[in-house]
Amino acid sequence: MQEVAEAARDSYTRIVATLIRVTGDWTLAEDCAQDALTAALERWPRDGVPANPGGWLTTVARNRAVDVLRRAAVEESKLREVAMLWEPAPPDDRLRLIFTCCHPALSLEARVALTLRTVAGVPTAGIARAFLVSEATMTRRLTRAKSKIAAARIPYRVPAGEALAERLPGVLAVLYLLFTRGYDADGEPAFADEAIRLARLLAALMPAEPEVSGLLALCLLQHSRRAARRDEAGELVPLERQDRARWDHAAIEEAVEILARTPVEGAYAIQAHIAACHAGERTDWVRAARWYDELARVQPTPVVELNRAVAHGYAYGPEVGLGMLAKVEGAPEGYVLAVEGDLRARAGEEGRAAELFMRAAAAVPDGPERRALLKRAQPPASP
């Protein structure tokens, strides 16, 4: 039922976050939230959608938690938890939940999986498919992550001051990894949508943090191209060959507006400005090259240097790009070969380019990227 799905998107995280804060029991919180959704699926088609769907779900979940705790209320502390469920919730419960799920004491994989399950409400089976494991295995991993939070006494709070500055990049990294797991050629598209939704939530809760807004703008710009990234056969279409009329221009406009009011203080905002260079009728490669220079200053990684060589090669000629590429060290071999092949092709060295594309294809896993490289290695069709 669509109304239940919409209410779940709006309220699930808030319900789970509040119940975890009060009870400290992750399983109870998730079970009660799921029970409320099940009740909505049963009752709303019969009784009609309530005027305040989110409030209805919250009340049902809270009542369910009260019932469970009352049955277990053999200690005064449990009785206090029952009373706390009826107190007004502080406004930062969802922030507390996000920062707890993304705590650095957990492995990166556990942080992503726990964020998907607890914050985004993605079913365990869907998370298992993304991680290429069985549902039972993913259930055990999620259980271990929750147990570690309890055993390590990880605080259920938003850090402040210097601690916030230290922890926020890790939270953003989890959200961006979640986005890329949906945006990648063989990813789960729904995960990209969830990452954008969570980035919106974080931006609304932390409006004074420029990198949060930068991450949201970056995800919106990249995801705006999703409809044009594959052809009718499902194969990848390079950026320069995509039908830009099929891009989500409303998302592009939103991202550009966000960037216009966001100070550039970190890598996500810079990457968003680079993505914005592609958003017009044609790519502004000169501006992109300048932004890549800035990105290389704050994030001097081999992959950034590789992309910087691409941008300069398109902005100032393939010879410039090849000169910069020769200085790149440590980037994945397949990507280096693919970039050199592209620059050689633009320089008119078609035979050399084809050889490089073949070698690049052999260096990447089987999938859409390899097929795209093999296609580029073929001579152009005769007119």
TrEMBL record:
The keyword Transcription regulation appears for this protein: yes
Coiled coil (residue ranges): none
Domain DUF6596: 167-261
Domain of life: Bacteria
Keyword annotations of the record: Sigma factor, Transcription, Transcription regulation
Domain RNA polymerase sigma factor 70 region 4 type positions: 98-149
Pfam families tied to this protein: DUF6596 (PF20239), Sigma70_r2 (PF04542), Sigma70_r4_2 (PF08281)
Domain RNA polymerase sigma-70 region: 13-72
Family: Belongs to the sigma-70 factor family. ECF subfamily.
Protein name: RNA polymerase subunit sigma-24
Species the sequence originates in: Paractinoplanes deccanensis
Encoding gene, per UniProt annotation: rpoE_24
